[in-house]
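Deviation from plan, reported transparently: tryptophan complex.
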Amino acid sequence: MERGQFSSKLGFIMAAAGAAVGLGNIWGFPTQVASNGGGAFVLVYLLLAFCLAYPALMAELIVGRYARANAVIALPMLSERKALKRLGQGVGIAGLVTVAVILSFYAIIAGWLFSFALAPLASSVGGSQISDWLMAFSIERNVAFTLIFMVATILIIGAGVSQGIERWTKGMMPALVLILLALIAYMLTLPGAIDGLKHYLVPDFSRIFEPSLIISALGQAFFSLSLGVGCMLIYGSYLSSNENIVKVGAWVTIIDVALAFVAGLLIIPAMYVAAHYGVEIFDKNGDLHDSDKLIFTVLPALFAQMGGVGQLVSFAFFLLMSLAALTSSISLLEVPVAYVVEGHKVARKRASWVIGSLVTLLSLTIVFNFEWLFGLVIMITTQYSQPILGLFFCVFAGWIWHRDSALSEIKKGFAGAQDSLFWKIWPWYVRFVCPLFILLMFIHALWGQ
Ligand code: TRP
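Because the crystal trials were delayed, the predicted structure below was used instead.
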């Protein structure tokens, strides 16, 4: 079978960055910062993203390009031993399951974004009741918009790699950055913003060793870079051999981390601005009210301050965010679909609809049991499954795969790889630092409870 491939380096970086940039950056990261004491979380996050998540990302990209297949096929290719082949398959399948569950909650939040994008449109044509409905938390709205979002995801994935994924990403990301920067500039003129900025940028060093903070930061970094489930492995499998994979991976990491950082620069000060205008952000104990809905309270409060243009800005912002979520959700659905298409020779369209429908059922189950299921599912997949599976990906790339094969794969698009700083550090990193750190953190967290 002809494998799809990205048509250019920029196309790949944008698509992989598009997969990485999404709710994790603009909804997840600021929410975690706000729940975990501000600057201390930011500092730990930045460290973990570059020192642990980037090497793990490289492990997936390199193995993916070498194997030119999804994780369930790729991981067993790294060893001759039967038992290890079986383990590889198991890790790949655990990744598929995790990714399906992640998509099921992702679609719910993405649906909120889309309904918030439509709300200003509704009110501008006089439908203020509709607009209220769109912005209020209800089962009906959640069902409707989860369905809309899932169908959009299924349609794009059904269409295939370069047609679908690449086309959607190119224009959207620069527009998103521009609107974020403009909003930050505006927000900083409002009362309370500077206090928020301090909270965001000045770390409270006494908190940086808190186990729960570190676990949350690690989960957040793995979620944001889409690791541990074979998603980036698949993107690697679509990358041309002429590209310098080390550089491409670094760009994806930088873009992803930068966008999260910029989003925090907007949301955290905006919380303080909203509080100044009387929006309740914290409860009596100083904990966040409804942390999952943070940006959906804070941002509308900010847009309301802007007068007439606020509606327009609100529309543009939430629409761009919905698109950013879409470029991520297609990367999520791509993982199980690629497996079924390649492993079981099912047609792409059919596979997209069947798997997409199963995920939708799971989504609806969460919508109907929101109070107890939503947070639980997020915690299990992002804080436990992803880092633990990421650990296995590192073990496969570092211990089970031959060093020479890894090097020759990297050298394909990067002739001097063997003398590079990357090659001096990375093999050692995926062998020891990443697995040990992830392991120690879990032990520490379990003991520290
Ligand atoms: N990283 C994306 C975000 O931040 C979400 C995402 C896309 C993802 N693909 C993934 C998360 C694979 C985990 C695994 O919104």
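The chain has a mean pLDDT of 91. We consider this an acceptable substitute for the interim report.
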